[in-house]
Amino acid sequence: MKKTKSEITSKTKFSEILKKDNKAAEILMSEGMSCLGCPMAMEETIGEGCMAHGMSKEETQKLIKKLNRGKK
């Protein structure tokens, strides 16, 4: 499957994700990413954040798919 420029990947920063979709914060919070208010988190990638929260690669990919679909 080909990735589009606007598609979220593990290297996309939280700040970019939140700018793309106003539903993203709700999705991230539902997955335990409660650190979104932290200024340092905004420069962190989704992959780094998931790793810091102890998520497996499979869990990270599942979250990224949810974010790309905009679904909770």
Helix content: 40-55%
* DSSP strand count: 0
Main β-sheet, in a few words? Answer: none
Mean pLDDT: 86
Task: Supply the helix-strand structural class.
Answer: mainly alpha
Radius of gyration: 11 Å
**Oligomeric state, counting identical vs distinct chains:** single chain
Overall domain count: 1
Beta content comes to: under 5%
Regions with pLDDT < 50 over 5+ consecutive residues? none
| Euclidean distance between termini CA atoms | 22 Å
Order of helices and strands: HHHH
Please sum up the structure shown.
This protein has helices spanning 14-20, 24-30, 46-52, 57-69. It has 72 residues and is an all-alpha fold. It has one domain (14-69).
Task: List its salient traits.
72 residues; single chain; mainly alpha; 0% strand; globular; 47% helix; 4 helices
Task: Describe the model.
- This protein has one domain (14-69).
- It is mainly alpha-helical.
- The radius of gyration is 11 Å and the shape is globular.
- The chain starts with 13 loop residues before the first helix and ends with a helix.
- The chain has helices at 14-20, 24-30, 46-52, 57-69.
